[in-house]
Structures are given as structure tokens and as C-alpha cells.
Amino acid sequence: MMKQEVNTGMKIKTFGRHGKEGFKNLGRNGWMTFASISAVTVTLLLVGVCLALLLNLKAFGDQLESDVEISAFIDLTAKQDQQDELKESIENISGVETVTFQSKEEGLDNLIENLGDNGEVFESLKEENPLSDAFLVKTTDPQDVNDVAKQIQQLDNVQDVEFAEDTVNRLFKVLEIARNVGLALVVGLLFTAMFLISNTIKLTIVARSHEIEIMKLVGATNWFIRWPFLIEGILIGIFGSIIPIGILIYGYYYLIELIANRFPTLFIDLLPVTPFVYQLSGLLIVLGVIIGVWGSLTSMRKFLKV
Amino acid sequence: MIEMKDVWKTYNNGIKAINGIDIKIDKGEFVYIVGPSGAGKSTFMRMMYREEKATSGTIVINGKDVGKLKNKHVPKLRREIGVVFQDFKLLPRLTVYENVAFALEVIEESKANTRKRVMETLSLVNLKNKARFLPDELSGGEQQRVSIARAIVNNPHILLTDEPTGNLDPETAWGIMDILDQINNRGTTVIMATHNKDIVNTFRKRVIAIDGGLVTRDEARGEYGYEN
């Protein structure tokens, strides 16, 4: 009698066979395979665009947030000792990190600088500076900006308090809505893609039921029977991620070029191409593979019965 | 060796197929399983290779309790048992050679070994010259011989055949019996469920009759015993 052992580890030759069978499976139901790959493509494209957008918005928001500074303008009538007193009062407010004095001349210079080319029109104002001296206040936690600003407002000798409250708050609202809508869409699409893959693989399983029956009968291991279907799912996932990755890489390069060339003054700093788009591409492939594996496991559980 | 102790099988739909069978089959025996249709012959065989699980009782094959076998160990059991069906179950798009080799391929046998074993087995069933043919191009008897070759190509201890001559004319059926006898002579236990009265009465072997899910007769050199 031949010595027999059920081999659980996989030989390279065996893996080659599974790969070949997986590819053959793709061809067996050409149109269903095409539909599945398309579904993965659409899903991943959307996931990619949403992620690129959200991550950039998030980076932008973080940037703004860390920049949030309160300008407390000092009454023109305030004397030096009153100013010192005010500075101390501000420093005593909980949550305040630093308090810096900014003379009205510095304030105007900063303003002109920030406005870039358009700032030149303000040059003439240097003769008769309309700004007041100010304390620039930074908080330890950007969340405290609102509270701190209110408290400063109530102090003596404060003419006015300014900070980018609305901009920041609005941006975060938009970000949150965008994230939720994107998430819902993506989840829906993920399920659609998974369902299509699982159906495609079900068809393959049915088409090969005869073979599977014999494999079971002569003692093929369960994983030996499963692998080709798993590989079929993985291949659908990988093929589905190719177009989205292409579009994403090309599109992102294009966008950055476009902004650099056409709108150089726009103060939006997109995340740099490297490593961002490559990380995103990697993520899309991984997602594709996950959808594929998920789809095939679903189908195998229902129809393979091994 | 095969041993069944007080084996019962009730299907989920309530049908009682086997109602307390005790049986012992020694290594190297040739056994006919006879009985009317629906008597439980197929269930009896299917329980041996764990296609069905007994509802109660124990089935021990080569020292292993088949009912207690974990799912992942079922393939190992199946490698010790070859199975042949009335309808051959050949893969139509594979050649004779490929159909037989398939059984070794899927248990990850090396290519060289596969080639050697397949050719040996094909010459045992007298089909060496038809290795490149497709199943469609063969007669019924030849197709059954391919399916026997596939069942024994990895040298199982036991060969289960469910009505192997059911679709064949008498002359061809004798050819199949000749091959089964050869396989049995090499030491393989052969169990054959059959309705073929002539074969059972001529080619005398042990006969186990199953009726109503019970063993009604067990004779060392028995007769078919039914009119059909």
C-alpha cells in the first residue's frame, strides 16, 4: 500500500494549480465576472475619491485649527500699566497658552503679507494705520478658543476680539456631513460588490459541482477545494482596483499641477503626492482583496458545503 | 476491517433508512449487498465514507471511528476508500488518462508518481490503449472501467461499488466482475451493492441482504435470493 498523508501545507506546485484554476474560473462566467469587476471598480473609485477628499479636508482643518489665534484689540485709550494688567488677566484665563503683543504696525504688515499681491493696496494705509495694538492669544487646545474669546471680551480695555470662529466651525460641519454621506455610499457599494462577487462564484461552483463532488470523493482536502474559488474572488478584487488606482494617481497629479499652475495664490495645501496617493493605492488593493475574499467566503459557505 | 455496531440512520425528513445493523467485514473480503430498492443499501455504503453520518451506533473502519471523525479528517478516510457508481461520474472534458490522474492530482501526488500509477491502473483495467480518449468516445463498460481505475488508483484498502453493472449489458458486466475480482485478489476489500441475480448466483461470494434497514441474511457463499 502507498503511504498516505493528508498534506495541510501547500506546495508551490499546488499553489500554481490553484492559481490556474482560479483564472479559469474567471473565464467560465465571463459576463458575471465582468459585472463583478465593474462593481468593484465603481466602489473603489468612489472610496478612493472620497478618501482623497476627506483626508485632504481633514489635513486642511487640522492646519486651520492649529492656526486659530485670538486677536484681542486693545483700547486706544489704554495706558501702558493698563495694558500690562490686561496681559496678566488674559494669561490667567485657563486654557491660554501664549500671549504675544502685536503693535498696530506689525499687525498691518502681517495683514499685507497674508493678502499677498492684493495686499499692496493697503500699503498706503501705513501713513494712517486704522488698526489697534493687540494681544495675540493662543490656546493650548483649539477647542477652547470659543470660551477664551468670550472671557477676554469681558475684560477691561478690550476694544474687540476676533478669531476665525465661523470658518473653522463651518468647515468641521461640512467635513462631518461629507464623511457621513461618503460612508453610507461606500458601505452600500461595498455590499453590492460583495454580493455580485458572491453570485459570480456561486455560478462557478455550480458549473464545477461535478468536479467538486469527485474531489470530495477521492479525498481532496477542504482547502484544496476552496482555494481556486478564493483566488477567483481575490482576482476579481485586484482587477477591480486597477482602474480606480490609475484614475486616482493620474487625477491627483493633475489636480496638484493644476493648482500650482493656475491658482498659485490659492492657500490650499494639498497633501503631497508621495506618499499619499501610493498609500491610498495600497489601501484600495487591500480593500479590493477584502471584498473579493468576503464574496467568495459567503458563496462557499452557502454552496460548497465542505 | 469494517465493523458496524447497532447502527441507525434516520434522515431529517423522518425516513428511517437503517434500523440497527451489526456487521463485520474482514480485510480482503468480497461482499455483495443485496435487497430491494429503497432497502437502505446505498445509505449503508454512504455511511462508510462519511457521506452520511449514522444517527446512532458506531462504524469503525481500519480502527477509526468514522462517526467521530472531525470534518478535516474525512479526506484522509476517503483516501482509504474507493467509490464507484452506476453512472460512472466521469468528467466529460477530461481524457481517460486525465480522469484517472485527477484523483491523484487533487490529493497532491507528485507528477512522476501520478504518471506511473495511472498507467499501471489503466493496464489493470485494460484501457492503456485508450488513455487519450474522451469518455464520450468509450462504451459503457469502458467508462465504468475508467471510473474503477479512478477509484483504485491510489490503492485504497476498500472499494465500494454501488450497482457497478446496473447500466451495462450482461457480457460487459462480466468484464467488470473480472476486474473487481482481480482487485480483490490484490488484497482490497470489495463491497458491491447489486441487483444482478446472475452475477451473485454464479460468482459466489458472501451475501449480505438488507431489507427495511435491517440485515435479513448474511451467508458466506450466498445466493441472490430475490426474484427480479
From TrEMBL, chain B:
GO terms for molecular function: ATP binding; ATP hydrolysis activity; transmembrane transporter activity. Pfam families: ABC_tran. InterPro entries: AAA+_ATPase (IPR003593), ABC_transporter-like_ATP-bd (IPR003439), ABC_transporter-like_CS (IPR017871), ABC_transpr_LolD-like (IPR015854), Cell_div_FtsE (IPR005286), P-loop_NTPase (IPR027417). One of its GO terms (cellular component) is plasma membrane. It is found in: Cell membrane. Gene3D superfamilies: P-loop containing nucleotide triphosphate hydrolases. It is a peripheral membrane protein. It comes from the Bacteria. Residues 2-228 form the ABC transporter domain. This is Cell division ATP-binding protein FtsE. It comes from Guptibacillus hwajinpoensis. The gene is ftsE.
